Amino acid sequence: MLVTGGAGYIGSVLCKLLLQKGHRVTVADNLMYGGEPIVELLNDPAFTFFKCDIRDQDQMKSVFESAPFDAILHLAAIVGDPACARQPELTRATNLDASIALYTLAEQYGVGRFIFSSTCSNYGKMKDPSVFVTEGSELAPVSLYAETKVAFEKYLLSQPVSNRCKPVCLRFSTVYGLSPRPRFDLTVNEFSKELALGRELVIFGEQFWRPYCHVVDLARAVILCAEAPEEKVAFEVYNVGDTSENYTKKMIVSEIEKQLEGCQVKYIQKNEDPRDYRVNFDKIRERLGFGITINVPQGIAQTIKAVKDGFFANPDDPKYKNVN
């Protein structure tokens, strides 16, 4: 398995799970946020690391020539609306141009499968809040991040079905949970951290919906698609998550308040949010047998414990965010 972005928030979890399952893992990562999340994996003879940028074609050719890969698990990207808005040219070059070049190399080198980590942000804002969107729903990206994800999805799904390299697009729910590369700029993690530290939490637009999925379960879904029979995943799109895990911001706070006493929360009315959607996840459950193993209340409990027990010397350290 070749994992791009393997030192990242989801990638570091994915690599450990792959190795535990007996796969040989190669990571290509520019270590934008450091290599600490995967440094221990260098002890594993089944693990190989290349420090490289997926935009550099010479570097990537060297990676492809190092071993024959069965699958590319493509996570490398500029992730999140704030990070993409800050560096739009880098975002397009990485999330779209370099991704297209990566797939081209995968096809050229005879890789059998290309698993792309996309996002449910592609759905944008629901026209009817009572209707759950599905993989067949209209895509309405409202950020550069989602625009690049939609564009690359379209590229992959437009490839000839005769191609050796079969793509599958996974639209991830909003991620949360503990990872070797911690992030506290994600809704569930941020809310849990702030309230665990006894601070007042200020929330804008508490009524807007999103689906949430634990980082471990997103990684499990990637592995499931890497191991599934080709006919179940080739040229398919799957939402990744669980239909019961759609929450508004206020609902997330309510779950935290069940676990922490004396929470101080201030709600500020905001009637316009570019993203507001509830997602149905029947397809991945029915076709691939996917189910989550950790829900939002359990993830909240994990994060609260980690923060209160002092696992993070400084939870406010900028390194725990994608944009400082």
Write the layout of secondary structure elements.
Elements: E1 2-4, H1 11-20, E2 25-29, E3 47-51, H2 57-64, E4 71-74, H3 81-86, H4 88-108, E5 113-119, H5 144-157, E6 166-172, E7 174-176, H6 187-196, E8 200-204, E9 209-214, H7 215-227, H8 230-233, E10 236-240, E11 246-248, H9 249-257, E12 264-268, H10 282-288, H11 296-308
Parallel strand pairs: 1-2, 1-4, 2-3, 4-5, 5-6, 6-10, 7-9, 8-12
Antiparallel strand pairs: 9-11
Helix pairs in contact: 1-7, 2-4, 4-5, 6-9, 6-11
Q: What portion of residues belong to β-strands?
A: 15-25%
CATH superfamily of the largest domain: NAD(P)-binding Rossmann-like Domain
Distance from first to last alpha carbon? 32 Å
Task: Provide the low-confidence segments as ranges.
Answer: none
Shape: globular
Question: Architecture of the largest domain, CATH level 2?
Answer: 3-Layer(aba) Sandwich
Q: Helical segment tally?
A: 11
Helical percent range? Answer: 25-40%
- Strand arrangement across the biggest beta sheet: 3-2-1-4-5-6-10
Evaluate the radius of gyration.
19 Å
Mean pLDDT: 95
